[in-house]
């Protein structure tokens, strides 16, 4: 990840209030070129509010907002944007190719229609009317519209909700291609494996405050215990007392051990039980870090 890649969208000390409720308490965040920033948080944490402010759909009550180096309200800056929000309605009688062509016409240098449909996996549905598509297929059309203008910065608010595995992977691939071409992406998602698959940097919001802002690798791995699973006859009570072991559970013929550091525990398991089989060691996931952070803040 390039820490000095150009900043494409930025909030500085931004505060937003809805009547008597403060949704953002002076937050800072930055979307850089060629990177995916995952904005994570529980329901109501303030993610959509932050996106609305960056897009100029809502004004900040305090702080500075920059989009492509200027004011999000300016038209020129909006032309460098791609946006897919949580809910969108499109004319149900228009065909997929007509909708994408219509959106492309707004931009100075759009991607060719065939390229957009191919990136999103919509070639076979090009002549289908929007109102005749499934919910997941409609999300793919919304994504096609978000990327058709060759955006410099792309905002994706829970883009893969309701998508099947193939469609989700097609969307991930399209996002990776855009990022490789230099696009900066702000992604919100409740699927933490999606953030792990795509993001270089993660911001965790909780009740309008930033709990963490770090490269994915730091957040996921920082001294977190690993999960060891194996088929073994060792008693859980015995393993529980070994140095580094935090938790042991028996699950039928399998032992599940949470340990940090994991390596000496793995070595001791192998040395103590010559019959041990099916050993798996799982690294700490972003989900563990997220749950720890939000639990501590509650
Ligand atoms: N128009 C509004 N009027 C009053 N309060 C609002 C309004 N929009 C959002 N809020 C409140 O602001 C807070 C942040 O909401 P926001 O929609 O930004 O959260 P979110 O992180 O996007 O949640 P989700 O994951 O559920 O989409 C919530 O407490 C919400 O109830």
Automatic annotation (TrEMBL):
Gene3D superfamilies: P-loop containing nucleotide triphosphate hydrolases. It comes from the Bacteria. InterPro entries: AAA+_ATPase (IPR003593), ABC_transporter-like_ATP-bd (IPR003439), ABC_transporter-like_CS (IPR017871), ABC_transporter_ATP-binding (IPR050763), P-loop_NTPase (IPR027417). Coiled coil: none annotated. One of its GO terms (molecular function) is ATP binding. SUPFAM superfamilies: P-loop containing nucleoside triphosphate hydrolases. Pfam families: ABC_tran. Keywords: ATP-binding, Nucleotide-binding, Transport. Residues 9-232 form the ABC transporter domain. This is ABC transporter ATP-binding protein. It comes from Stenotrophomonas lactitubi.
């Amino acid at each position: 990840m390039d820490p000095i890649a150009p900043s494409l969208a930025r909030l500085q000390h931004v505060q937003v209030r809805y009547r008597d409720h403060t949704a953002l308490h002076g937050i800072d965040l930055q979307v850089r070129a060629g990177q995916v920033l995952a904005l994570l948080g529980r329901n109501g944490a303030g993610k959509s509010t932050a996106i609305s402010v960056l897009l100029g759909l809502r004004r900040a009550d305090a702080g500075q907002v920059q989009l492509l180096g200027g004011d999000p309200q300016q038209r020129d800056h909006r032309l460098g944007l791609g946006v897919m929000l949580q809910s969108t309605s499109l004319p149900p009688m228009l065909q997929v190719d007509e909708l994408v062509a219509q959106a492309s016409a707004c931009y100075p240098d759009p991607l060719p229609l065939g390229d957009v449909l191919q990136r999103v996996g919509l070639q076979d549905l090009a002549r289908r009317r929007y109102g005749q598509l499934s919910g997941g297929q409609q999300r793919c059309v919304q994504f096609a519209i978000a990327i058709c203008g060759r955006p410099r910065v792309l905002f994706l608010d829970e883009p893969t909700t309701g998508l099947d595995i193939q469609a989700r992977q097609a969307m991930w691939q399209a996002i990776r291609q855009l990022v490789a071409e230099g696009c900066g992406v702000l992604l919100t998602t409740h699927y933490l494996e999606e953030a792990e698959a795509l993001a270089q940097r993660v911001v965790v919001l909780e009740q309008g405050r930033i709990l963490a802002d770090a490269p994915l690798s730091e957040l996921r791995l920082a001294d977190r215990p690993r999960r060891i699973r194996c088929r073994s006859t060792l008693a859980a009570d015995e393993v529980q007392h070994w140095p580094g072991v935090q938790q042991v559970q028996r699950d039928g013929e399998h032992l599940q051990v949470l340990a940090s550091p994991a390596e000496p525990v793995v070595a001791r398991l192998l040395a103590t039980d010559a019959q041990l089989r099916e050993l798996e060691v799982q690294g700490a996931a972003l989900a563990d870090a997220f749950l720890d952070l939000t639990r501590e803040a509650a």
